[in-house]
Amino acid sequence: MSTVSENLQPVVEDEITIEVTINGSPRSGRAEPRLLLADFLRQQLGLTGTHLGCEHGVCGACTVLIDGEPVRSCLMFAIQARGADITTVEGLDDDGELHPVQQAFHAKHGLQCGFCTPGMVLTCKALLDHNPTPSEPEIRDFLSGNICRCTGYVGIVESVKEAAAAGRGVSPAAPASTTTER
Amino acid sequence: MTVTEPLTVRPPQYVGARVLRVEDNKYLMGRGRYLDDLALPGMLQAAFVRSPHAHARIASIDISAAKALKGVVEVLTGAELAKMGTPLVADLQREEVLPVGKELLATDKVRHVGEAVAIVIAESRYLAEDGAQLVSVEYEPLPALVDPEQALSHGAVLLHDDVPGNNVAHIEFDSGGVEEAFAKADRVFTKRFHAGRQHAAPLETRGVMADYNPGTGHLTIWSSTQLPHFLRTLIAPHLQMSERHLTVIAPDVGGGFGLKCHVFVEEAIIPLVAKRLRRPVKWVEDRVENLAASGHAKEIVMDIDIAVTNDGRFLAFRGRYIGDCGAYSGYPWTALIDPLAAANLLPSLYDVREMSFQVDAVLTNKCQTTAYRGPGMAPGHLARETLIDDIAHELGMDPVELRIKNCIGPEPYVTVNNMRFDGGSYVESIRKAQELVDYDRFREAQAAARAEGRYLGIGFSPFVEAGTWGSEGAKALGFPAEFYDTASVTVEPDGTVTVTTGTFNHGQGHHTSLAQLAADRLGVRIENVRVVDGDTSKAVWGAGTYASRSAVVAGGSILYAATEVRNKLLALAGSLLEASPDDIELYDGQASIKGVPEKSLPIAQLAGVGYFGGALRPEGQEPTLSATRYYDPPQTYSNGVVVAIVEVDAETGRVDLQRVVAVEDCGTMLNPLIVEGQVHGAVAQGIGAALYESLEYDESGQLLSGTLMDFLYPSSTEVPTIEVSHIVTPSPVTEGGMKGMAEGGTIAAPAAVINAIADALTPFGAVIRHAPVRPADVLALIEAGRA
Where are the transmembrane segments (chain B) (predicted)? Predict the structure, then answer.
């Protein structure tokens, strides 16, 4: 005989006001202490571009930038982000004009279903902000905390190279592809 | 060698060009709308109470504490749900198959860890989970079956009283002369292979939202599904509703890979609850639920026998497939989705005229099994292709030459079990892959490395992919039913084009590739074509997207419908330009007389006449410019090869995947950029199957891999650059020459990687009998070889 968690009591705590800077603008919302930052962004602020793939810190889909550093918003409470400067995917484009990293993902087929994409482009932005000329092993190492189930990372790695090259004003060599027609 | 850059200018035709995807921007900007991004006024959220036991009787459920919690609106158990809707019963129109039912929520028994026994609906997900913790369930544990052969054995406890022997189906095939062929063979090789338990594990989990309007009697269901129309048709009876009162919308879907081409109990429960409460209700699966209680895949215990002559000719294949199918028969495709598909693809590209197989689809106390990219085909391929490498080794033959010696020719070929291959580059693709990896030089490098105590290996894995799933193709794999699809093509009054299709884009780039087809056929620019799918009230009925079917079935139906509309445009142009419709060409938004480009009209103007031109229309031509057509293709099969090169570290057991080369032949390519993306993704999933991904249960049926810390996806440091080459052998039987593709990489890559490991470990006489192959397994093989 067994019962499930019969001794657990629900957590009921008061909401508090959280003030943050999101994508350059001040925003505030209410959050109970247990509210995850990801849920705060998505539900309280309506920024649903931040996705949740596992809620236990493995997949990286929920990655946002806090003071320029990639952070898993599913492993952080909203309350811990009080006063932080947060960049979400919604803050990357310039009034519809894609950020160079976004443009590179488009040009190199760096996305398929799009679910990992926000976390992936933010992570790539953080990489290139720190290291504008990453080698392929450096790219792969930096991206290894972001899971993509669709692309096999081939297009993504090419996208980062493309974005890095665009930052230097050059165009990288296209990957080889051969076709035999009948 | 041609290197083609993505397209930036209007090509002579879109089909075949590397057109950048038109759907990208919303995803890149975080403006995709996935299931969990949706919300409705007054919406409630649900959480499930799930079994911690593999097999148990439910003695009692106490929901009082949960119901008393502030913010909890309702708590329902299986007994209540049973009054509201009916079980999902998976059955196949074959006499061997037993129907298996799954209650919406378990009432008397749970049959796997994670099976839902109650649902809590609350003002927020947090509160719903609080409530779920307060539901107290008393279980009486029963013996758990975790070994399919034990489950099959006489006297085993039954999971379902109406499924004797725990066997959903025993299916046999015999070409007639198999035993004779084995009797006269010089050599008979045998292998048991146990393929690992996998999970499609799309990055977006499942999820359902529903909203009932008591004023109209209309229910809208949003689901993260691959088949919105099919879901509506299949779920309506369980909701006791008519399809006219049901709308199903698939919003943006973050990957499916086969998991979401099923109908799940949650897709009945959430609508039923929304209807009962008269408030919108949403449930989003968490990752633990996803791993424990959605759909597992591909675990099959296989015994493969091959009868061979001394000079390496295959005389006969014999296979036994025991599917470890979990506690239910996945709805609607049944528990046969893996073992039967594995068996029917046993011949692959080998010219074998005698074959027999036996299939058992066995119920065990694990999560049910469902389709996952290359269902059945992938594990079946592993068993066959690793055995072929073993045979080459035993006969002292080169494994590539052994395959080519037994390979069918390029022309159409009917297999011994009546699969009708429509021709392909079966040998040519292997030769091309050999060239790409510089096979002879690799063998030299391998020998040199071995002399230094380093272990390099290479694995070849040529494949035939039984995708597409028109009615004939599905039947050939053992699944008889109708699988056509439908498209509507409309030239709007301003000359832009709307295509609707019953297939559903969830990452495959259909909004680009299908628009390419329509743009070419109608002579318009691709930016003037919009593809609409994923909403039963906006797109024509169709069976959805799975089994690599969309390019062929959606493509064919779009070509048919667009041709009808094109003919109307040609008639209008002929009439207005005073020429025969046969002399009109449509290109780049203009209709002109061939050879007389100055005599032209914008297609937008033709469209205006088509809608509002009255007597300007040719006599008898109806107004508007629209057509709806369906297409049900004959059997078609793509083919190709995956080659892997590895170095194995004999000290640590680590496998360094140094190079992966794929040759793909899927007939006419709509868009090589998208084809390559599909190959990359499929191969990466195959690498996961070979080296990392496995859902493990202990002997009591407890799931040990319930998080992504335990079920390991390959990351960017595990997947190397995947080199893709194309051969184009257009299908002679499909409209447009396309062949379904996107699963070949997942079918073939596991065997390529595992054969490469075995090849590297040849000095240790390694024979690999299971997947995945992890460092501990590698070390065990080395140790066994040294002993």
Answer: none
Report the CATH number at residue B279: 3.90.1170.50
Listed by start position, the domains of chain A span 16-91, 100-168
Rounded CA gap, B127 and B68, in Å? 12
Structure ipTM: 0.96
| Helix or strand (DSSP H, E) at B619 | none
Q: Left, alpha or beta for B568 (phi > 0: left; psi -120 to 50: alpha)?
A: alpha
Indicate the DSSP class of residue B299: -
- Kindly report, residue by residue over B111-139, the tens digit of the pLDDT: 999 999 999 999 999 999 999 999 999 99
Length of chain B, in residues = 787
Q: Is B467 exposed, middle or buried (0-12, 13-18, 19+ CB in 10 A)?
A: buried
> What integer pLDDT is reported at residue A181 of this predicted model?
55
Report which secondary-structure segment, H or E, holds B328: none
B156-209 confidence digits (pLDDT tens): 999 999 999 999 999 999 999 999 999 999 999 999 999 999 999 999 999 999
Phi/psi for B655 (5° steps) reads -105, 120
Asked whether the beta carbons of B100 and B167 are under 8 A apart, the reply is no
Lookup: tokens for A131: 């290291």
Give the distance from residue A138's alpha carbon to the nearest chain B alpha carbon, in angstroms: 10
Instruction: Kindly state whether residue B14 falls inside one of the protein's structural domains.
Output: no
Residues 6+ apart with CB under 8 A from B101: B87, B88, B89, B90, B160
What is the spatial order of strands in the sheet that B596-602 belongs to?
B584-587, B590-593, B596-602
For residue B213, the enclosing domain spans 35-142+201-293
Q: What are B291-308's pLDDT values in tens digits?
A: 999 999 999 999 999 999
Report the number of distinct structural domains present in chain B. 3
Q: What is the 3-state secondary structure (H, E, C) of B126-181?
A: HHHHHHHHHCEEEEEECCCCCCHHHHHCCCCCCCCCCCHHHEEEEEEEECCCHHHH
Contacts of B641 (CB under 8 A, 6+ apart): B429, B430, B432, B433, B460, B461, B462, B463, B661, B662, B663, B748
Superfamily of domain A100-168: [2Fe-2S]-binding domain (1.10.150.120)
CA distance B99 to B97: 7
Is B716 close to A140, i.e. CB distance below 8 A? yes
Residue type at B308 in one-letter notation? V
**CATH code, domain with B423:** 3.30.365.10
Q: Do B52 and A152 touch (CB under 8 A)?
A: no
Q: B264 vs chain A: nearest CA distance in angstroms? A: 20
User: CA–CA separation, B509 vs B511, rounded Å?
Assistant: 5
* Cβ(B114)–Cβ(B292) below 8 Å: yes
Q: What is the pLDDT of residues B390-429, one digit of tens each?
A: 999 999 999 999 999 999 999 999 999 999 999 999 999 9
Model pLDDT for residues B46-73, shown as the tens digit of each residue: 999 999 999 999 999 999 999 999 999 9
d(CA A75, CA B504) in angstroms, rounded, equals 33
Asked, for residue B349, whether it belongs to a domain, the answer is no
Q: Report how far residue B101's alpha carbon sits from residue B85's, in angstroms, rounded to the nearest whole number.
A: 13
Question: Which one of A6, A93, A150 has the shortest CB-CB distance to B255?
Answer: A150
Burial per residue of B618-629, b for 16 or more beta-carbon CB atoms within 10 angstroms, e otherwise: eeebeeebbbbb
The answer on B549 and B414 residing in a single domain is no
The predicted pLDDT at position A2 comes to 38
Amino acid, res. B317: F
- Within 10 angstroms of residue B2's Cβ, the number of other Cβ atoms is 9
Residue B782's φ and ψ, nearest 5 degrees, are: -65, -45
d(CA B246, CA B449): 64
In B, minimum Cα distance to A92 occurs at: B29
Q: Average model confidence (pLDDT) for chain B?
A: 97
Pick the CATH number of A16-91 from 3.10.20.30, 3.40.50.1010, 3.40.640.10, 3.40.50.11890: 3.10.20.30
